[in-house]
Amino acid sequence: MFVSVRGSATVLVADDEEAYRDLFAQMLTGEGYNVICATDGEEALELIANNAIDLVLLDVMMPRKTGFAVCLAVKSDPKTRLIPVVLATGLHGADDRVHGAMCGADDFLGKPVNRQELLARVNSLVRLKKFTDELENAEIVLGSLALSVEAKDPCTEGHCERLSQYATALAKRLNLSEEWCVALRRGGIVHDIGKIGVPESILTKPGPLTEDEWKIMKQHPAIGERICAPLKSFGLVLPIIRHHHERLDGSGYPDGLKGEEIPLAARILQTVDIFDAITTDRPYHRARTPREAFTLLREEAKRGWRDAGLVDELEAALLTGAII
What we know:
Layout: E1 10-14, H1 18-29, E2 34-38, H2 41-50, E3 55-59, H3 67-76, E4 85-89, H4 94-102, E5 107-110, H5 115-150, H6 159-173, H7 178-190, H8 200-203, H9 211-217, H10 220-228, H11 238-243, H12 264-278, H13 290-302, H14 308-319
Parallel strand pairs: 1-2, 1-3, 3-4, 4-5
Helix pairs in contact: 2-3, 6-7, 6-12, 6-14, 7-12, 12-13
């Protein structure tokens, strides 16, 4: 017995043979799936681009674009790479499966297709897609919450988006892995989400904070970590959130970490965070030029607060156009 996901799952079937398109459509619609059909690879990509697809079932040998080419295109696009792709083929050689795996295929079916096997694999992958969709929705909610915190202070408009871009560009310049680039992109958006626990009167205060106000403000990295901790995909993001206010000499917060104890990703975000703060208008200072910002950053590096190497890399990224 197959538990279907009626009304919410759409399967794209792409096959140049009408008999197979009809067969797949009959099997899948009988289980409650919505089915869209394409006659070749080009049409399949057009349908994927213009419809909410939950799974793609591809014939390998199709005109215009093969199933391999379509699979590679789907998995190479950040907008579609989480869509499960199943390759259905009469080819049974190991090389073909290796080629399909290298293109990013999630599963394979041999032709002629066994109905029970088809439904079992489609059902399993569609359920996995639903889980990833829920995860993505949770990330969207966190991002929206972070932007709502940013909106409390008109002087920080666009700050999170800029940090996300700056941090990702700097990570790429340092040849960090894709997963760290993604973590820094996310960290740039949600790094100050913990400020939701800080009174607005403190966040927008134009003058210096009192000692008691600073105690409250310094809680926001830990609060942000707790907010994001339930999301397992944020495992690499959590130390960025918690430690982006640490200083190399141990005078930062919330844990007083020193030097290499501070994760590199947190130091990257800290560097771009301070650069952006210096170069934008704030209640306590006017916007400075990039040159002035780097002068101030290097002064803080000499005091033992900042990573001088990252300051140099950020300036080089700016000069080479990696950061606009």
